[in-house]
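Inverse folding, one chain.
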C-alpha cells in the first residue's frame, strides 16, 4: 500500500462515508487510497463531518496493523 504524503504528513482527501451513530468514517485520499477514522480525531472537536467534505488529515499507524487518518480538519 502506498501511503499518501507519508506518515505524519498532511494529506488531502474527501470524506466518503461517516456514520454519526458509531463515529466511524472513511476518507479517500487524492491518490485513491481509503483511510478509516473515528470521530474523536476530528480536529475542531465537533465529532461530526459531512460526507463529501474536502479534508486535510495525517496518515498514522492505527489499530489492527492498518493505516488510519488522524487530525482530520475541513479545508
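Residues assigned per position:
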Amino acid at each position: 500500500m502506498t501511503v499518501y504524503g507519508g506518515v505524519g504528513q498532511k494529506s488531502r482527501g474527501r470524506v466518503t462515508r461517516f456514520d454519526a451513530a458509531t463515529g466511524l468514517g472513511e476518507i479517500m485520499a487524492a491518490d485513491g487510497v481509503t483511510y478509516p477514522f473515528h470521530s474523536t480525531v476530528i480536529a475542531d472537536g465537533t465529532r461530526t463531518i459531512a460526507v463529501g467534505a474536502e479534508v486535510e488529515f495525517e496518515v498514522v499507524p492505527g489499530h489492527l496493523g492498518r493505516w488510519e487518518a488522524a487530525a482530520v480538519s475541513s479545508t
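The first strand starts at residue 10 and ends at 19. The CA atoms of residues 24 and 38 lie 5 Å apart.
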